[in-house]
Specification:
The mean pLDDT is about 85. The chain has about 180 residues and is mostly helical. About 40% of the residues are buried. The two termini are about 35 Å apart. The chain contains seven helices and no strands.
Length: about 180
């Protein structure tokens, strides 16, 4: 008997490492899902990180997560990022915003990132309103309508992000627990 080879099993080190990996994956996925509602947390990023951690630390074949599933989850992740960036701008455009309002929503979102949660919420809204007033030369009422569109688009973006996160989590659970 090779004592060195048996040590991890004797002291439960392998089992403890497996438990820690599972705990990390579950925490990433749960906090990631919560992050789809809370703008401060990178929701789908954490969910995808949890899937990657699971796939590469549990052993690619032994994990039960197929590489095709990982690719599909990656595509959902990329789609969630794209929707996050453009949802407010699309909402503003739908409610009659000019190109200046759309540029204001994007600019406000980028500037707002540096001011935490309040900036993430207020940035695109203020961006549309101010750009519509000063660059598009719209009246306050028309600029306000464009701003309402930004809010509606942002809420639609949150809903889409939640649905994509649910898809990622469901795919992970299905691939790991149901298919195998």
């Amino acid at each position: 008997m090779d004592l060195i080879a048996e040590l991890p099993g004797l002291f439960g080190i392998e089992s403890m490492a497996n438990t820690l990996r599972w705990a990390a994956v579950i925490i990433l996925i749960v906090v990631g899902f919560i992050g789809t509602f809370v703008p401060v947390l990178p929701g789908t990023t954490l969910i995808f990180a949890g899937a990657l951690l699971f796939y590469f630390t549990m052993g690619m074949e032994a994990s039960g997560l197929a590489w095709q599933g990982l690719v599909f989850m990656g595509l959902l992740y990329i789609l969630s990022i794209v929707l996050d960036w453009i949802s407010g701008a699309l909402g503003a455009k739908w409610f009659g915003s000019s190109k200046w309002g759309v540029i204001g929503a994007i600019t406000g979102g980028l500037v707002g990132m540096f001011f935490g949660l309040p900036g993430l919420i207020a940035g695109p809204i203020l961006g549309v309103f101010l750009f519509e007033l000063f660059f598009a030369k719209k009246e306050v009422k028309d600029a306000g309508n464009s701003t309402i569109g930004t809010v509606v688009g942002g809420l639609a973006g949150i809903l889409a992000r939640v649905l994509l996160a649910l898809g990622m989590v469901a795919w992970f659970i299905g691939d790991v627990f149901v298919v195998n």
